[in-house]
Amino acid sequence: MIEGLVKREKGIKEEKSHTTQKKDGEEQPWLWYPTLTLNLDIKKALPPEGVEWLHVRVQTKHIKNGRYDYEVMIFDQSGDLIALSHHVAMVLDGTRNTAKRVTGGSSKI
Q1: What is the pLDDT of residues 11-50, one digit of tens each?
Q2: What is the domain count for the chain?
Q3: Among 30, 14, 32, which residue's Cα sits nearest to residue 22?
Q4: Which of 2, 52, 58, 82 is most deeply packed, by most CB within 10 A?
Q5: Contact 42, 83 (CB under 8 A)
Q6: What is the CATH number of the domain that holds 35?
Q7: pTM of the full predicted structure?
Q8: Which Pfam families does the protein's record reference (predicted)?
């Protein structure tokens, strides 16, 4: 599924997926990114009046077998670290999120 996303971003045509959504009149595969873990560490409180801007840096750490890990860092105007987050998610076909729910059975994930 990651390969399909990369192909789409590079403008490479691929076979039509059975699950698509229309964007600008073109059918594209729809993906779902369920969260496995999410950690958030607040390092510094913002002033009550807020700040004019924050810098957000997102860095992918690892992508393999439909799973990806990435880190989010948020900095203030002076470059001080405000918050740090680590996120682990899966990349699944969108039908896994919209399919009919099965009760009393085993999970598909």
Answers
A1: 665 554 444 655 566 666 688 889 999 999 999 999 999 9
A2: 1
A3: 30
A4: 82
A5: yes
A6: 3.10.129.10
A7: 0.60
A8: 4HBT_3C (PF20789)
Sequence-separated (6 or more) residues with CB below 8 Å from residue 28 = 8, 20, 21, 22
| 32 neighbors 93 (Cβ within 8 angstroms) | yes
Closest CA to 2 of 59, 60, 65: 65
Domain contains 104 = no
Is 103 inside any structural domain? no
Cβ count within 10 A of residue 69: 16
Question: How many Å apart are CA 61 and CA 42, to the nearest integer?
Answer: 20
Residue 88 in any domain: the answer is yes
Do residues 77 and 83 make contact, with C-beta atoms less than 8 angstroms apart? no
